[in-house]
Amino acid sequence: MFLTTILSFVLFTGFVGLVTWLITRKDNHRSSTGYFLAGRSLTFPLIAGSLLLTNLSTEQLVGLNGLAFSEGLSVLAWEIVAVVALVAMALFFLPRFLKSGIATLPQLLEIRFDKQTAMITNFIFLIAYMVILMPIILYSGAQGLSNMLNLSGLLGIQNDTAILWITVWFVGIVGSIYALWGGLRTVVVSDTLNGIGLLIGGLLIPYFAFNLISDGQGIMEGWRILKTAHPEMINSVGKSTQNVPFFTLFTGVMIINLFYWCTNQQIIQRTFGASSLAEGQKGVLLTGTLKLLGPLYLVIPGLIAFYLYNQQGIKADNAYGTLVRQVLPAPLTGFFAAVMVGAILSSFNSALNSTCTLFSLGFYKEILRKNATDEQVVKSGKWFGLFLAIGAMTIAPFLAKTESIFAYLQKMNGIYFIPIFAVVVVGLLSKRVPAIAARAALLGGVSIIAAGYFIPGCDTMVEYLHEYHFLTIVFVGLIVAMLIWGKLAPREEAWIQQDVKAVDLTPWKWAVPTGILLCIIVCIIYYTFADFGVL
Questions:
Q1: What is the 3-state secondary structure (H, E, C) of 322-371?
Q2: How open is the CA angle 295-263-357, to the nearest 5 degrees?
Q3: Which of 85, 98, 93 is nearest to 272 (CA)?
Q4: Average pLDDT of the chain?
Q5: Residue 36 above 70 pLDDT?
Q6: Higher confidence at residue 452 or residue 36?
Q7: Range with the lowest mean pLDDT among 324-328, 337-341, 492-496?
Q8: How far is CA 20 from CA 188, 337, 342, in A?
Q9: Dihedral sign, CA of 426, 47, 135, 107?
């Protein structure tokens, strides 16, 4: 069984690597546009595949299913609210990003405000990715693989800490090779190939699991058994004591999703490489359509794991890997493990590629070596990325004591999500707010949220309000403060965004109808499983 599992794992991983190399081997990786933006050649299937898989890494597969194991169906809010955010990205944010021809979000803030604002944003992104995002991706990936493949038995090592370190460094090294030597297009192509495998494998998990709990009588019977056994878990409406209370859908959960899908460099960089606005919009909206299927493999397996293991004292973040190992046949376990590695690599190398981009174009080219050639800029990013990768691989194993990796990720993300998103929104919607207001909002917002989380007394207040409501209060406060600043001490000339003619900005004719339809479907899904009696 072990041999079959490992063989299928190696074959699929090798297949993705070979096909990616064959497709991208002639790409120009020496120029900054070729390396960081894939030569602005990405079409909508590649954009959608890469967006989906960059998001669907193991902090989602392991973390969100773990949260569903603990709290039930209410956590599907993270998936369906994401669809609304993707609609906002396609219709509002993407046209403005492509109009300025940017490669990084800080470049937009430099155009709108000034170089100092861009530098602060660059620095915040780099620190957050190294200390928060990349270690979480590596840790959750290692946990998922360890449980799925039973690596302690396979390798004959009973020390869980040793297994964790080995797996983290294996994934980190392979991911670094993809990101640092291949560039964005290599990342995108491998993402798309793994994305196909992920959708197939992810949907197979609930299929086999429902057949397991129904003794082969089918999915519908399995769903009936699950609902009958634990009806309290099948409710999309979150109670006040849960991770996603109902009213936070309209405050912190929505704002976090809007930042993540509309202004998070790791995610949106592949949309900057779109060959046209229409291709970018189709790619983003296709991602939104595919996200509607997300609960099937990001939430339902966690509920099934609760039915099977809730009396066994299993840790929430171990539930998904344990379920996969139990329900999948050996050949499919190896295949899905390979897909999981692809998902881990996707998020890790996307974050790494983004940090290289931020450093090379934001610091190296602007401060350290202003007359650097394109080749020198790319080389600097690779060396900096290697440094960050080593740092992330060193930090990741120390997250083992975290109760819920997904909840921890969302909490830590709020520290930098909120101020950056507030500045971007004000920058795009106002014409007179000065750069000093944006800089004050970035530094002040990070400080206020960090104080609310970590200073004794303040954390009690945040807990009383609920952290997502707290983030919304800070978000609104920052926007109001910047707008008032713009009224009292406006910039001398109104800002007017210039079209740099980087790509064709003709929108996709079906973008608005498709966006409206997706939002309607989101409301229908949520209402179908809603029991508002818990409020």
A1: HHHHHHCCHHHHHHHHHHHHHHHHHHHHHHHHHHHHHHHHHHHHHHHCCC
A2: 110
A3: 98
A4: 83
A5: no
A6: 452
A7: 337-341
A8: 9, 19, 12
A9: negative
51/57 Cα distance (integer angstroms) = 11
Tell me what pLDDT residue 474 has: 94
Dihedral sign from CA coordinates of 314, 319, 208, 342: negative
Q: Confidence band (pLDDT; 50, 70, 90) for 41?
A: low
Taking CA atoms, 293 is separated from 189, 299, 338, in Å, by: 22, 10, 21
Please indicate whether residue 444 or residue 53 has the higher confidence score (pLDDT): 444
Q: Which long-range contacts (CB under 8 A, 24 or more apart) does 206-215 make?
A: 206/296, 206/297, 206/300, 206/301, 206/304, 208/327, 208/328, 209/301, 209/304, 209/323, 209/327, 210/304, 212/308, 212/326, 212/327, 213/304, 213/307, 213/308
pLDDT at position 37 is 47
Q: What are phi and psi of 43, to 5 degrees?
A: -100, 170
| Residue 386, amino acid | L
Q: Is 356 exposed, middle or buried (0-12, 13-18, 19+ CB in 10 A)?
A: buried
Task: Give the pLDDT score at 33.
Answer: 46
Which of 266-280, 292-306, 356-370 is least confident? Answer: 356-370
The answer, yes or no, to whether residue 31 has pLDDT greater than 70, is no
Widest CA span in the chain: 72
DSSP state of 456: T
In CATH terms, the fold of domain 2-492 is: Sodium/glucose cotransporter (1.20.1730)
Per-residue pLDDT, 139: 83
d(CA 349, CA 189): 12
Sign of CA dihedral 106, 108, 109, 114: positive
**Where exactly are the structural domains of the chain?**
2-492
Tell me the C-alpha distance between 266 and 351, whole Å.
Answer: 5
Assess whether pLDDT exceeds 80 at residue 14: no
Cα 456 vs. chain centroid, distance in angstroms?
30
Rounded CA separation 255/179 (Å): 29
> Treating both helix axes as pointing N-terminal to C-terminal, what angle do 330-359 and 44-55 enclose, rounded to 10 degrees?
100
Mean pLDDT of 493-501: 91
Task: Quote the percentage of the chain above a pLDDT of 90.
Answer: 34
Nearest to 513 by CA among 87, 73, 195: 87
pLDDT exceeding 70 applies to what percent of the chain? Answer: 84
E strand or H helix at 82: helix 77-88
